[in-house]
Amino acid sequence: MEDTNQQEILVSSEEDQTTETSNPEKEKAVSQGWRDKEEYVTSGGILEKWVDFGEFNRRGELIEAIHKSNQKYKQVEEQLNVLTKHHEKVAQSSYEKARRDLLEEKRIAAKENNLEKLAN
């Protein structure tokens, strides 16, 4: 009878371990650094800061989303800076071309002795 109880306890214990380790959410959390409450506290963690694996995963997803948003923001900011510099170059080129064209018109007007065009 005692052997049967020991076998039941062993089987029950093995089933508990199998159920505990086959939880994909828990496995995900453990792979990313989550620890159960006892292990967390014994390794120097503050009990009030411990969270269960579901909350740990949820926070991890939020942190990942924030990180992706930050990366996208940086890319957009870099693209905007490139476009701003390009716009400044185009504006400067347009100004220089208009100035050259105006000087050329004045030079032609001076050569033709056209005072009206030269004054404008």
Return residue spans where pLDDT drops below 50 for at least 5 consecutive residues.
2-19
> Describe the biggest sheet?
none
Structural class: mainly alpha
Radius of gyration, in angstroms, nearest whole number: 37 Å
Number of helices, counting only DSSP H or I runs of 4 residues or more: 5
Q: What is the arithmetic mean of pLDDT?
A: 86
Q: Tell me the span between the first and last alpha carbons.
A: 117 Å
Q: What is the overall shape? A: rod-shaped
Strand percentage: under 5%
Number of DSSP strand runs: 0
The arrangement of helices and strands along the chain is: HHHHH
What does this molecule look like?
It is a single chain. With 120 residues, this protein is mainly alpha-helical. The chain has a domain of 58 residues. The chain has 5 helices and no strands. The termini are far apart.
Could you write a compact summary of the structure shown?
The chain has five helices and no strands.
